[in-house]
């Protein structure tokens, strides 16, 4: 059992995890964000550390407790997260991209608080696309590096996740079917499917995020050997 501290299949492996949800500033007091709590990424960081990995966690706006022995780098926006992923990826054998990165950001951040205009009943925000962090970094992957992405899907989940895996040059993708709102975001339990270019490797039960982290990391271990 890996919890007893003797079984260390990731001994000495440098592993980078991202967790949480990015915030895209609108003005000094407002941002756009998403529902990610960071629990899945933090569980992966914790279990990987227990399995012997040297874990660096890039955390975006999560309230989770930092697991002992894990090095944490805090970021807020997608741009900050990208900068830290780029800087740290070359020193790591594995990247696990569990963070929910905003796809868009306001093209202009107002330096002053936006006032509501009494004469208008609407406000237009113009958004521009953020870089796709995991896909950019996976393009720079050395032969021994492994990149694991996540996919949040509500419809045609397996097809869409498989498409993302290939399009982004990922080794594995962890599919979260987010159409069932009882599990997933902010919940302690989840259910995922782990997919490679050869197809479905494993669909987990509905179970704790720690248990899911362990299952993902055990599949990773097989790939590292
Ligand atoms: N991702 C990323 N950079 C972004 C957006 C997403 O690195 N700007 C990563 C996520 O961390 C995740 C994977 O890409 O590992 C898939 O994210 P997801 O939101 O499911 O897919 P998208 O490619 O953004 O497509 P869409 O949201 O349109 O389904
Ligand atoms: Ca997205």
From TrEMBL:
Binding site for CTP: 103, 113, 150, 164, 168
Cofactor(s), names only, from the UniProt record: FMN; Mg(2+)
Gene: coaBC
Family the entry assigns: In the N-terminal section; belongs to the HFCD (homo-oligomeric flavin containing Cys decarboxylase) superfamily.
One annotated GO molecular function: metal ion binding
Domain of life, source organism: Bacteria
Species of origin: Fructilactobacillus fructivorans
Listed pathway(s): Cofactor biosynthesis; coenzyme A biosynthesis; CoA from (R)-pantothenate: step 3/5; Cofactor biosynthesis; coenzyme A biosynthesis; CoA from (R)-pantothenate: step 2/5
Keyword Cell membrane: no
EC annotation from Swiss-Prot or TrEMBL: 4.1.1.36, 6.3.2.5
DNA/pantothenate metabolism flavoprotein C-terminal domain residues: 10-221
GO aspect biological process, one term: pantothenate catabolic process
Location of region: Phosphopantothenate--cysteine ligase: 15-225
Swiss-Prot/TrEMBL catalytic activity: (R)-4'-phosphopantothenate + L-cysteine + CTP = N-[(R)-4-phosphopantothenoyl]-L-cysteine + CMP + diphosphate + H(+); N-[(R)-4-phosphopantothenoyl]-L-cysteine + H(+) = (R)-4'-phosphopantetheine + CO2
Protein name in UniProt: Coenzyme A biosynthesis bifunctional protein CoaBC
Cofactor binding comment, as recorded: Binds 1 FMN per subunit.
Listed GO CC annotations: phosphopantothenoylcysteine decarboxylase complex
